[in-house]
């Protein structure tokens, strides 16, 4: 009876609600955690990720900033250098570019610059990716800008439960974390996410489905498409393993390599442009370290080398279940 009552008190929540839940948990339990960004206080953020936090924790811990991303980034780095744990929000992925100077030139270098005497325990939350019919600068998959930077962690959750656990881990991490949230699935589905403060490990891939014929490697919103593709492939007698990378930098290549050693084939799926997308790094590592395990060329299903098109063509640009299935079948056709 007690378990049934607990379940009623903790309904399934969306990914965006899991973000709010994680922020609230950590703010309750750590007074050094502060939230800042444009409209995050009174309005609760453009996607309502911080709804209710200012009313609960006050305007000194949930700060509405000017509409100035450069200032937000600089203030965040300054707070982190002085013993706070700031969680900043960039309203959209395309708004991070003015922040890059502070993030790359300062936040990422604190540990190196001071030979480990100082760290920069900050999180930059970035609503990320396409699929919501938004205008220019609102639908970009720009994770590879940060995966090339030593000193940064780059995390991309793909479900409510992983968003909750990985955000807790990111806030607790002593080094800067770029936390990119796939906005297309903010409210797409719900999961039971206990508000227990249990963090998930960073720097590891998650094997979401076992398989023997082909490995599907992806992150963010495309995890859903890859799982659906795996189900479609199963109907044709093809067993697909699905890996959610989750932390892009540092990359848990061991999990990917172990899967490919079993399946012999790999399809990498991401919505960023193909050229120099993070999938190219995974493909290169497979060529360097797992070439003799491969029985087929690595396939990539990605966005195109263009800016994401507006509205009518947006979903044509993004990886789809059909494109993933086709790539997997090409890989399996090699014996």
TrEMBL record:
Q: Which residues form a coiled coil?
A: none
State which Enzyme Commission number(s) the record gives.
Answer: 1.2.4.4
Enumerate the spans annotated as Transketolase-like pyrimidine-binding domain. 13-188
Per UniProt, the keywords (alphabetical) are: Oxidoreductase, Thiamine pyrophosphate
Swiss-Prot/TrEMBL cofactor(s) = thiamine diphosphate
Query: Where on the tree of life does the source sit, at the highest rank?
Result: Bacteria
Q: Check the record and name the PROSITE patterns matching this protein.
A: TONB_DEPENDENT_REC_1
The record's section on PANTHER family has:
2-OXOISOVALERATE DEHYDROGENASE SUBUNIT BETA, MITOCHONDRIAL (PTHR42980:SF1), 2-OXOISOVALERATE DEHYDROGENASE SUBUNIT BETA-RELATED (PTHR42980)
Q: Report the protein name in the record.
A: 3-methyl-2-oxobutanoate dehydrogenase (2-methylpropanoyl-transferring)
Its taxonomic placement starts with: Bacteria, Pseudomonadati, Pseudomonadota, Gammaproteobacteria, Lysobacterales
Chain's gene name: pdhB_1
């Amino acid at each position: 009876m007690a378990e049934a009552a607990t379940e009623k008190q903790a309904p399934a929540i969306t990914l965006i609600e899991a973000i709010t839940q994680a922020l609230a948990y950590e703010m309750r339990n750590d007074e050094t955690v502060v939230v800042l960004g444009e409209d995050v206080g009174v309005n609760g953020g453009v996607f309502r990720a911080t709804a209710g936090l200012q009313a609960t924790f006050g305007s000194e811990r949930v700060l509405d900033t000017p509409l100035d991303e450069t200032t937000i980034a600089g203030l965040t780095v300054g707070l982190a250098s002085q013993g706070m744990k700031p969680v900043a929000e960039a309203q959209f992925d395309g708004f991070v570019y003015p922040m890059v100077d502070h993030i790359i030139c300062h936040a990422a270098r604190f540990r190196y610059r001071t030979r480990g005497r100082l760290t920069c325990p900050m999180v930059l939350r970035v609503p990320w990716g396409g699929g919501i019919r938004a205008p220019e600068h609102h639908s970009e998959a720009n994770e590879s800008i940060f995966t090339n930077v030593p000193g940064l962690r780059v995390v991309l959750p793909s479900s409510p439960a992983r968003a909750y656990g990985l955000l807790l881990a990111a806030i607790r991490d002593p080094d800067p974390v770029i936390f990119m949230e796939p906005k297309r699935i903010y409210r797409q589905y719900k999961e039971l996410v206990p508000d227990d403060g249990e963090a998930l490990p960073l720097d590891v891939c998650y094997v979401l489905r076992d398989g023997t014929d082909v490995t599907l490697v992806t992150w963010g919103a495309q995890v859903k498409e890859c799982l659906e593709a795996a189900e479609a492939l199963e109907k044709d007698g093809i067993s697909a393993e699905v890996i959610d990378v989750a932390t892009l930098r540092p990359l848990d290549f061991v999990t990917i390599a172990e899967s490919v050693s079993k399946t012999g084939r790999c399809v990498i799926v991401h919505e960023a442009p193909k050229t120099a997308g993070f999938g190219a790094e995974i493909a290169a590592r497979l060529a360097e370290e797992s070439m003799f395990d491969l029985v087929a060329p690595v396939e990539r299903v990605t966005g195109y080398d263009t800016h994401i098109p507006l509205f009518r063509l947006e979903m044509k640009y993004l990886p789809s279940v059909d494109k993933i299935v086709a790539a997997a079948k090409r890989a399996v056709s090699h014996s």
